[in-house]
Structure formats: structure tokens, C-alpha cells
Write a structure and sequence with these properties.
5-stranded antiparallel sheet; 5-stranded mixed sheet; N-terminal domain of MutM-like DNA repair proteins; Helicase, Ruva Protein, domain 3; DNA-binding
Length: about 260
DNA sequence: CCGGATGTTCACCT
DNA sequence: GAGGTGAACATCCG
């Protein structure tokens, strides 16, 4: 999916739908419904209500509903796109088709007046859930404090990158953001998480903030300085060294053997 | 044609 | 228990 930066864009787009009466819901794909709810249950829970608040935790978009209704949780997988009023919130998502095949609409909320919020996901990796367990996610990466980040990395011998991408420990970072962050911070993604010194934790925390800020302004997780070099034979944009390509935490990982230590 | 791609979950290993 | 691997989902791109 979209990583947290993209979901943040989706959240702001969805905010424009707050207050509109929900008159119908399409949930044509039972597989897309998570948490055991049936399509009928989801429809019944939403129709007649309105979204009253938009929130995000990590890569999970949360829309609270009126009249003590449930919270709608939306996940976007790798190719999920949110569309409101016929306009894609993001139209430059990589690895996602720009086509608008109606068969890919996995979930649609229709509002009074004919507008709609549509979740289109070609690969079906996302999902929709009523009252998702938000506590299964760690603190959002945009909010985590330095001391808390220190505790998160201190608690595991797993590779640093794997720990940072563990959504139960820290919510929001995906493959691209994590590679960019560690490249900026000059830290080897394969190092045991608990091996970081206090100074390195401080550096990691500072670069987490700037990485999210800079890439957020540029427009997404794919706008990092490392992005163009994330290919076989790519060279480090900082010092020209041939980048390492490894699998860490189950994901293809690019890092600079010279300045990431 | 084949391998991989911003993700999550699960079964199955070590 | 911790951590890793591969599969599944389905489409696009090089």
C-alpha cells in the first residue's frame, strides 16, 4: 500500500465526506471484508449514519460514524486507491493501474446527493473492517518519541529494518520509507535492532522526522533520494558506492555498504 | 516468459 | 518464544 504518507493523503481526501448521510454501501467482495462481518452487517451498520471523524494509525484509515455507530477501518494493500467524488486521492501510485475497471471496486460508500467514496484495489490486498483492533498497532511513526523509539529497537535482536517495519511495534513504515530512512540515517538495515547506541537512536529518530516531512512534501514514499537507485546495479546517491541488494525482513532491501554501518 | 513490485496473514520450519 | 520462509491475493512492468 501505500505506506503511511499515502494513507495520510487518503485520510485528508476522506475528510471531505464527513457529515454526508450514507444512503447505500456496496460490499460486493466478501473476501475483502475482514473481521468476520458479512456484507449485510456492514451495510446495515453504515447506512443511515454519517462519518464524523477521520483518523489514521499507521497504514490504517479510520472513519468514525455517527449515532454510536462503528468505526470503519480501511486498508489499502499495495495497490488500493481511494476515490472521492470521482477523483482519485492519489493518481500516481506506482504498481497500481491507472485504469478504473469497475471490477476492482471492492467497497463503495454512497452518500446522499449521488457522491461516493470508492476503494479500488486491483490486487485485492487491502480490506475493510468494522471496529478494527487499533491496539494491535504500535504508535504511529509520525508521533513516536525518541525514548519510545529507543525502547522499540532495544527489545529485539531482529534486523533493525524488520523491527522498524513490524506494525505491531511501530505503525506506518513500509519497505520504501524504511530503506530511505536507514539510508539517510547511515544505519545498516541488517544490524540487530538492539545494537544501536543511544546516539544512533537519536540519529534514527531525527531522520525519521525529516524523512516523513520531506517525502510527505514531495508527494509520497516513492519520492526518496534513494528511489532511483533501488535497482540492481544502483549506486549510492551520496557516495557512489554500489548498493547492496538483500532480503531483510522478507523484503528486498537496498543499502549502501560504505556509509550505512 | 519470468521475476518482482509501497502489504498482511497464516502455516510451517529452525 | 523468536525469527525466517513461502504461499496466497491479482495486475502491471521491464
Amino acid at each position: 500500500m501505500p505506506e503511511m504518507l499515502e494513507v495520510e493523503v487518503y485520510r485528508r481526501a476522506a475528510a471531505a465526506s464527513l457529515g454526508r448521510p450514507i444512503v447505500a454501501v456496496d460490499a460486493p467482495d466478501a473476501w475483502f471484508l475482514k473481521g468476520g462481518a458479512t456484507a449485510d452487517q456492514v451495510v446495515d451498520a453504515l447506512v443511515g449514519r454519517r462519518f464524523v471523524a477521520d483518523r489514521r494509525r499507521g497504514k490504517l484509515l479510520l472513519l468514525d460514524t455517527s449515532d454510536d455507530g462503528p468505526t470503519l477501518g480501511l486498508r489499502f494493500g499495495m495497490t488500493g486507491v481511494l476515490e472521492l467524488d470521482g477523483v482519485d486521492a492519489i493518481d500516481q501510485l506506482q504498481y497500481a493501474s491507472h485504469r478504473k475497471d469497475p471490477a476492482w471496486e471492492r467497497f463503495v460508500v454512497h452518500f446522499d446527493g449521488g457522491t461516493a467514496l470508492r476503494l479500488r484495489d486491483p490486487r485485492r490486498l487491502g480490506g475493510v473492517e468494522l471496529d478494527p483492533d487499533e491496539e494491535r498497532l504500535g504508535p504511529d511513526a509520525a508521533d513516536v518519541g525518541r525514548a519510545e523509539l529507543g525502547r522499540i529497537v532495544a527489545g529485539s535482536e531482529a534486523p533493525l529494518k524488520a523491527r522498524l517495519m513490524d506494525q505491531a511495534r511501530l505503525a506506518g513504515l513500509g519497505n520504501l520509507l524504511t530503506d530511505e530512512l536507514l539510508w539517510r540515517a547511515g544505519l545498516d538495515p541488517a544490524r540487530p535492532a538492539s545494537s544501536l547506541s543511544p546516539a544512533e537512536v537519536r540519529r534514527l529518530h531525527q531522520h525519521l522526522g525529516t524523512t516523513l516531512e520531506v517525502l510527505g512534501e514531495r508527494g509520497g514514499s516513492h519520492t526518496g533520494d534513494l528511489q532511483d537507485a533501488r535497482r540492481r546495479g544502483g549506486a549510492c546517491p551520496r557516495d557512489g558506492a554500489l548498493l547492496d541488494r538483500r532480503t531483510i525482513g522478507g523484503r528486498t532491501t537496498y543499502s549502501c555498504p560504505r556509509h550505512q554501518r
